[in-house]
Amino acid sequence: MIKRKNYSQKSLHLPIPLWRNPMFNQTWQESNLLFHMKLLKDKVHALESGEKYQKLQEEHRRELTQKDRQIKKLEKEVARSHAETIDVRNKWFQTCEDVLEEKDRELARKDRELQEMEKRMLDALRQRDEALDRLRKKNAELSAVKIQLYEAQGEITQLTARINKDYTNSSKSSSASPNHGKIHNNREVTGRKPGGQRGHSHHGRKRKEPDQIIPIPAPVEYTDNDNYKPTGRSIRKQLIRLYVSTEVVEYVTPEFRNQTTGQRVHAPFPEGVRDDVNYDGSVKAAAYLLNNECYVSIGKTQTFLREISDGKIDLSTGMICNLSRQFSEKTQEERDEIFLNLLASPSLHADFTFGRAGGKQAAVIICTTPDLVLYQAREKKGHEGVKGSPVELYQGTIISDHESTFQSYGTRHQECLVHVERYLRASIENEPGLEWNAEMLEWVKSAIHYWNEGKDGRGTQENRVSEFEARYGQILEKAKKEYEYELPSEYFRDGYNLYKRMEADKEDYLLFLHDPSVAPTNNLAERNGRKFKRKAAQVMGFRSMEGVSYFCDGLSILQTLKSKGEKLYKAVALRFNGGREAEV
């Protein structure tokens, strides 16, 4: 600190005031400059000693601002002191020095406080960063656990849907669910034992026209006893026996030899008698029906016919196997006629079913009406499987399950509502938080019941149709809102996909309400498909596609005959005999 001498007017004996003396002004300016220089040096020294403070200047802007405000306040106080003590120069210098010393001490104290605060702040930041790191790790672990939980719940839902999938909630047949529960009927439980009930009319076996009547004489204890009198009523009981009669007819004709050419000739044998031993259409029909209608294996068919004929019918396994090809060839014209009649029908039921041939999957397309059935074997389903079938050329209403292939054919389409019921039940089981699926299931049941009433001749009502259509739209609108509120799970989307189909193709689900001739279900094709499924399960796998084709050809004729109420055995025997009546 530079000390200046204290000059006054008396010591200098100046005639003019001290503050007007040029020397005094120069000295005062130099002192003032030295003071400001010292002040600036102190500020520079303070700033140079605070490198950490400068690095964290942005983070501690508020603390620096407060210090600047304090410095400015002190500067103002110094300025006021300068203004107030302008007349007392000595005191003014001393006061400035005191103020500077106090300021230095204050700055030193502030620096110490600032360093302490910086240290505490750094400790707090370090602790905060450590806490944030721990929190981030915990959040990452929690997020991973939530993702695993969501995926696990989705997989559980998906696996539960697969495990619970059966004939009631999917396209799976009841035969493919061997452990399913009892299939309940619609009868009310009464608690009574099965069989005839008291007060009900008796339903016994139907009596047949007797071929032989054997009278039984009355016992002597009744005829010779005066206590017993005849009532005039005869008690009749029938015993029905089965006789299997095998007739071997041998045709004999003399042979002649041409003496010139050596040619041997004889009278022609009847049609169908070419080999040394021939089997009539009645025998072939029995073997064919046992194997293809009753699903008896070839070996057991051979054994059964041999035993009931006392060895007279001894067919080889090759011949039994070849009967399918023979029957297919003999009924080609009938199948062509079925094909044409199916094209002329107003509505057509169509479906695909599957089996195995040659170790690979084989498909069968089924086209049917109430009185006509046509099975056709195909290597694949889809458009390749439709080629050559009635569906390819059909121009009417096609009734099918949700098979996208059939949507490209025909002029109108009706979705099978039985399949819709199954998908709705699956949605109810796997999407318990939704309501539209249960409401739509009730709508489907009511609509089918209404169609059955119209089919039975009770007629249809336009207002009822409008009500069904309006209710249908309301349920779909409710489904839309529910799926917007609760998005469908990626592990189970059957319910959502069904809603989208029913919304996009409303006409395909409501056609049966406007046209009573269109059935609301594809049960007809489904039932006919089971016939092939039973054979496929019995043989496990056909040897070739030709075997599948021969079986389908025969099955088309058999199912058509049954739908028309004809007797299979006589009809099959007639076809094996080439149209000649067989003695059956």
Distinctive features:
584 residues, alpha/beta, five-stranded mixed beta sheet, 7 strands, disordered N terminus
Description:
- It is a single chain.
- With 584 residues, this protein is of the alpha/beta class.
- It has a domain at 9-51 and 64-140.
- The protein is 55% helix and 7% strand.
- It contains 20 helices and seven strands.
- The protein has helices at 9-12, 22-48, 51-55, 61-84, 89-163, 220-223, 281-292, 298-308, 317-330, 332-344, 383-386, 390-393, 417-430, 436-458, 462-485, 494-504, 506-514, 523-539, 545-563, 568-576; strands spanning 255-257, 264-266, 347-357, 360-369, 372-378, 397-400, 412-415.
- It has a five-stranded mixed beta sheet with strand order 5-4-3-6-7. Strands 1-2 form a two-stranded antiparallel sheet.
- α9 crosses α19.
- It is elongated.
- The chain starts with 8 loop residues before the first helix and ends in an 8-residue tail after the last helix.
Can you describe this structure in just a few lines?
55% of the residues lie in helices and 7% in strands.
Task: Please describe the topology of this protein.
Elements: H1 9-12, H2 22-48, H3 51-55, H4 61-84, H5 89-163, H6 220-223, E1 255-257, E2 264-266, H7 281-292, H8 298-308, H9 317-330, H10 332-344, E3 347-357, E4 360-369, E5 372-378, H11 383-386, H12 390-393, E6 397-400, E7 412-415, H13 417-430, H14 436-458, H15 462-485, H16 494-504, H17 506-514, H18 523-539, H19 545-563, H20 568-576
Parallel strand pairs: 3-6, 6-7
Antiparallel strand pairs: 1-2, 3-4, 4-5
Helix pairs in contact: 4-5, 7-8, 7-20, 9-19, 13-14, 14-15, 15-16
